[in-house]
């Protein structure tokens, strides 16, 4: 059988080229994403950065530990405690100390003048610079309140002696640059004198001690909530010490999704290609049966063909993946999807996984086709009809129905059990897969009536092209279904992924608009930053406004006695002011009852009964037993937890909502607020403008990731279309010759082939749109159940581009082989035999 399979493959090589290319590309993509995934498992080992020269660093404990029946569970704290002044004074007796204070600053034109990232600017005391990598490259250390040392990056324009405008916590002022230091890479800093830094930020964030670590630990004592760091542990005092691991989380999710979709699409395309190839070769299999071959021998021949293609394509794919992986990593780094240091390691196991996956895909993809080949009877060799009969066996109908019911059932169960799950990326990316498979399995049943419906008008126009295209599509159901299948995948993925993302983004924006009554919003921007106290004071002093200040923090609860779960929270200065500037979706209790002994939770919490107490750990690690005073609806997921300001010690104000009272002079309020923002380097936006800026758009990395996934699907669509249409057109040369003999010109025949191709792509696009409609309807239903009123957003430009690209590929793949075939005289083509 192997020798017979090899001879058949050599004779019908056109039939197998597309399967080889599709499988090789699939293996290459799996190998590429696998190698990239392997590189995300371990972030690079970085040594201590900021406090590399310090002997000991003392700071508030940044980790919460809880004993559970299954062991100790840990969770990061959002607001570690400050170092108490009395402890700082006590440690001075142990060794030389330096107090480290970190606070937000802004420099006008920092990107241009300092050559650094404006969002990464922080203020420090120069007293702690000796324990850090910062060394003066020009000038001297600051000695007076109005003097600063700044970090400079590539292209910096500032020089020693220049005057710069610096926005600090107490306001904006002009300061003299007396020295510069090279940027360290992990932050950009402005250094003040120790006294000036203490005035601007009284809180001591860290303390460096030049003493024996054991002596420092003895002085600090146990149970103080302080961590004594020495050696490699000093890295925990670096800015965002876990940023490398956190940066790889989104990369890991993106590559995992791409790998999953690649595997799904490759199995789909290979199975569809083999099925169509077997359907085309039924006369060949009939001849083998007539010559004495058993059904098992025919099946083994098909398996042998798949095995040969699988081995060769998997090997080629692994080689291509090994070549492409470093280039993918470089592209992702350049686009900001992955960190700049992201590189492919020396792992080889992803290549083994890709090879055996490709071989398994080839063999699994031919299972159904082999059984169909084995069922071919000897009389099939005598058939001349090109009309497909029995194109949809009952077994396939049952499988298709089961898959469709499973997909719809899972969607309904998610809507009934927890509508919020439908809005999660993992769900709305995987949910369409079952529906795509179901619609593709039903394609032979759906394409004939759909093709007749779509060509009803063209078939009645003058000329025979519309009528012939309609009848050819109806007669060649298997060919039409095989061409439509990859288009279903691409259109469904494009509309579902991009449409769902855009719909959820729009829903979040609509929810934010509904929940805010404020007229102005000012926020700090980058995570971990805070607004200057001078701006907050200036905003409160504006007559005729209600000002609600809030701080980002977190609370942690022990769920079911085994899992520490941290929730994002906002701490507000006044519940009454919060109620005045917002309209939160309260389903139980009263928002205005929030005080220092209570908490506002949402419906996702295990405990949601108003008046019941719930034990929590606050952002700085303190344990509190708070009473539930109100419960919020879950919404799109942005309705978090609310606390009083007292329960967010250590967190700075990072958002100010301002509502203008009725009858107040709005023009005067606007002038004073913007003047306050200008003086302190804070951007004050109207509430609508603030929502427009922060809510409607996905991050650039998310958008590029989705486009990468769509590109994979589109490439597969091109391969599948080219392969199927080349096979189909090559098989139809006698039909084309018959048209020529009846008087049709070459251009008319090519126009007919092109119209048929476009029509089949439209059929696939309609079925793909049906899959998307079900998925988007599920998202819309979930939003309605969550009381979020928002419209469905359809990404028409993306879907239109995908359909246009598919139509262009289909036309080229069908007309080019037809054009070559028509170079032969029609009489000679009509006399050809298979």
UniProtKB/TrEMBL annotation:
Q: Where is the ABC3 transporter permease C-terminal domain?
A: 258-377, 708-824
Its subcellular locations are: Cell membrane
Provide the membrane topology annotation: Multi-pass membrane protein
In its keyword annotation, does this UniProt entry include Membrane?
Answer: yes
Annotated transmembrane regions: 253-279, 300-325, 353-373, 394-416, 428-447, 480-499, 704-728, 749-774, 794-816
What does the UniProt keyword field contain?
Cell membrane, Membrane, Transmembrane, Transmembrane helix
> What Pfam families has UniProt attached to this entry?
FtsX (PF02687)
- Its principal location? membrane
For whether the record's keyword set contains Cell membrane, the answer is yes
Alphabetical list of InterPro entries matching this protein: ABC3_permease_C, Macrolide_Exporter_MacB
Q: Can you tell me which family this protein belongs to?
A: Belongs to the ABC-4 integral membrane protein family.
Supply the name of the protein: ABC transporter permease
Write down the species.
Answer: Streptomyces kunmingensis
């Amino acid at each position: 059988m192997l020798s017979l399979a090899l001879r058949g493959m050599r004779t019908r090589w056109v039939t197998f080229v597309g399967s080889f290319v599709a499988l090789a590309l699939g293996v290459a993509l799996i190998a590429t994403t696998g190698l990239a995934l392997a590189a995300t498992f371990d972030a690079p080992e970085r040594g201590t950065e900021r406090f590399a020269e310090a002997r000991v660093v003392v700071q508030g404990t940044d980790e919460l530990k809880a004993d559970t029946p299954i062991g100790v569970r840990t969770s990061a704290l959002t607001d570690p405690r400050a170092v108490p002044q009395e402890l700082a004074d006590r440690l001075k007796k142990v060794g030389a100390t330096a107090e480290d204070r970190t606070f937000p600053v802004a420099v006008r034109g920092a990107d241009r003048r300092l050559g650094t990232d404006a969002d990464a600017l922080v203020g420090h005391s120069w007293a702690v610079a000796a324990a850090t990598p910062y060394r003066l490259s020009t000038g001297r250390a600051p000695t007076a309140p109005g003097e600063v040392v700044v970090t400079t990056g590539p292209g910096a324009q500032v020089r020693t002696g220049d005057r710069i405008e610096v926005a600090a916590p107490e306001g904006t002022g002009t300061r003299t640059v007396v020295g510069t230091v090279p940027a360290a890479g992990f932050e950009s800093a402005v250094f003040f004198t120790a006294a000036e830094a203490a005035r601007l930020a009284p809180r001591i964030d860290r303390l460096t001690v030049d003493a024996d670590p054991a002596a420092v630990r003895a002085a600090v004592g146990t149970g103080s909530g302080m961590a004594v760091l020495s050696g490699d542990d000093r890295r925990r005092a670096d800015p965002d010490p876990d940023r490398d691991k956190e940066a790889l989380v989104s990369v890991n999710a993106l590559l995992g999704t791409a790998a999953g979709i690649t595997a799904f699409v490759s199995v789909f395309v290979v199975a569809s290609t083999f099925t169509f190839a077997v359907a085309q070769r039924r006369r060949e299999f009939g001849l083998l049966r007539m010559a004495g071959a058993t059904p098992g021998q025919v099946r083994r021949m098909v398996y042998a063909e798949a095995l040969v293609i699988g081995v060769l394509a998997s090997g080629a794919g692994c080689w291509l993946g090994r070549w492409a992986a470093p280039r993918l990593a470089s592209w992702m780094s350049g686009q900001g999807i992955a960190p700049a240091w992201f590189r492919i390691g020396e792992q080889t196991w992803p290549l083994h996984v890709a090879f055996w996956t490709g071989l398994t895909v080839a063999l699994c993809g031919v299972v159904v086709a082999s059984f169909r080949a084995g069922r071919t009877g000897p009389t099939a060799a005598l058939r001349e009809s090109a009309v497909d009969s029995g194109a949809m066996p009952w077994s396939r109908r049952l499988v298709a129905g089961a898959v469709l019911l499973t997909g719809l059932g899972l969607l309904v169960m998610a809507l009934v059990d927890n509508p919020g799950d439908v809005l999660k990326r993992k769900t709305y990316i995987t949910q369409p897969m079952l529906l795509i498979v179901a619609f593709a399995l039903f394609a032979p049943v759906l394409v004939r009536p759909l093709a007749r419906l779509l060509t009803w008008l063209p078939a009645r126009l003058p000329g025979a092209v519309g009528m012939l295209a309609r009848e050819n599509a109806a007669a060649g159901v298997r060919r039409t279904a095989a061409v439509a299948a990859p288009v279903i995948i691409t259109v469904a993925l494009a509309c579902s992924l991009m449409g769902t993302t855009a719909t959820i983004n729009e829903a979040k924006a609509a929810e934010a608009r509904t929940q805010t009554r404020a007229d102005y919003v000012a926020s700090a921007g980058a995570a971990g930053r805070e607004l200057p106290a001078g701006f907050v004071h200036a905003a409160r002093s504006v007559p005729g406004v209600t000002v609600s200040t809030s701080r980002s923090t977190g609370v942690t609860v022990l769920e079911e006695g085994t899992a520490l779960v941290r929730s994002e929270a906002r701490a507000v200065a006044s519940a009454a002011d919060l109620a005045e500037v917002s309209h939160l979706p309260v389903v139980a209790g009263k928002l205005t009852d929030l005080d220092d002994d209570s908490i506002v939770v949402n419906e996702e919490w295990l405990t949601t009964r108003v008046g019941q107490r719930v034990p929590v750990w606050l952002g700085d690690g303190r344990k509190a037993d708070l009473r539930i005073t109100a419960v919020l609806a879950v919404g799109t997921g942005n309705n978090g937890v609310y606390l009083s300001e007292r329960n967010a010690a250590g967190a700075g104000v990072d958002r100010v909502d301002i509502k203008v009272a009725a009858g107040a002079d709005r023009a005067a309020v606007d002038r004073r607020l913007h003047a306050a923002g200008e003086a302190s380097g804070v951007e004050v936006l109207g509430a609508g403008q603030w929502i427009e800026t922060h809510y409607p758009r996905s991050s650039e990395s998310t958008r590029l990731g989705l486009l990468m996934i769509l590109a994979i699907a589109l490439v597969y669509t091109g391969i599948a279309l080219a392969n199927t249409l080349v096979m189909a057109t090559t098989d139809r040369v006698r039909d084309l010759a018959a048209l020529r003999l009846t008087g049709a010109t070459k251009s008319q025949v090519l126009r007919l082939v092109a119209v048929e191709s476009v029509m089949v792509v439209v059929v696939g696009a309609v079925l793909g749109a049906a899959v998307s409609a079900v998925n988007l309807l599920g998202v819309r239903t979930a939003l309605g159940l969550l009381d979020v009123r928002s419209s469905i957003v359809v990404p028409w430009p993306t879907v239109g581009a995908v359909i246009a690209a598919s139509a262009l590929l289909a036309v080229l793949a069908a007309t080019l082989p037809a054009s070559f075939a028509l170079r032969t005289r029609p009489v000679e083509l009509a006399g050809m035999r298979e």
